[in-house]
Amino acid sequence: MAVQPLPETRPCERLCPKCERWKHHSRFRTWTRRHRSISTLTFATLCKDCEQIERNERVNEDRPLAIIDRRTASRARTLGVSKSFLWVNMNWSSLVPEMRALMTDEGRCRSCGHAFVNERDIQIEHREPPRLRGDWAREHARNLGIFCQSCNNTKGDKSYAEWLDEQEEARLSNERHRSETDATAAFVPWAQLTLDDVSPPPLAESYAAAAILSG
Ligand SMILES: [Zn+2]
Ligand SMILES: [Zn+2]
Predict the structure, then answer these.
(1) Tell me: the pLDDT tens digits for 122-164?
(2) Which residues surround ligand 1, an ion (CB under 5 A)?
(3) What's the total number of domains in the chain?
(4) Pick from 74, 190, 196, 94: which is nearest to 146 by CA?
(5) Cα-flanking dihedrals φ and ψ of residue 214, to 5°?
(6) Closest-lying ligand to the alpha carbon of 117?
């Protein structure tokens, strides 16, 4: 009767859960964690080869689709429904082409008009906040918008109408503030400033300068 040999793993090896192979520990990325004066060496979960494979997969995947897919899955988990319910019945799949457009160089936050900082900055927001768990009228894609994180934070749990008014108030208040500071600051463009121009010129001069620039 043949004796089954034990798997040949040595103490210097680690198991990579992706390729399911035991490999020498030098084939895993490491980094040092310091807590107080004790530093510990931490190993990456996957071997370097598998990490490279995952990186390539990420480069080749359809990012907008993958991002919306992941966020749909995460919302579905929170609500305790299947992903396909949100994807199909709640029409979340319609967010993909929108995401695709926002991830180009032309992508702008519809609220502040600025470019997105990175992928994470492109956030899905409920226009009207859900009133309870499983508020399907408000989980439907027709109630979703995509904004940058800063704008998303200003929205919070406010009603859409309340938020619109608040944002308009902020815009007006900022414009008032800007016209006050612009009037006291020099009208000289930054490019023309030299190191001697550390303090703004007297008001009359700046208006004269403005007249020359615009005239
Ligand atoms: Zn591996
Ligand atoms: Zn924004």
Answers:
(1) 999 999 999 999 999 999 999 999 999 999 999 988 999 999 9
(2) 16, 18-19, 47, 50
(3) 1
(4) 94
(5) -90, -20
(6) 2
Distance of CA 198 to the CA centre of its chain: 37
Kindly give the distance from the C-alpha atom of residue 68 to the centroid of ligand 1, in angstroms, as a whole number: 28
Q: Are 46 and 18 in contact (CB under 8 A)?
A: yes
The parent domain of residue 143 ranges over 63-162
- How many whole angstroms from 74 Cα to the centroid of ligand 2? 23
Q: What's the predicted TM-score (pTM) here?
A: 0.60
**Using only C-alpha atoms, what is the Rg of the chain?**
28
Please indicate, yes or no, if residue 118 is contained in any of the structural domains: yes
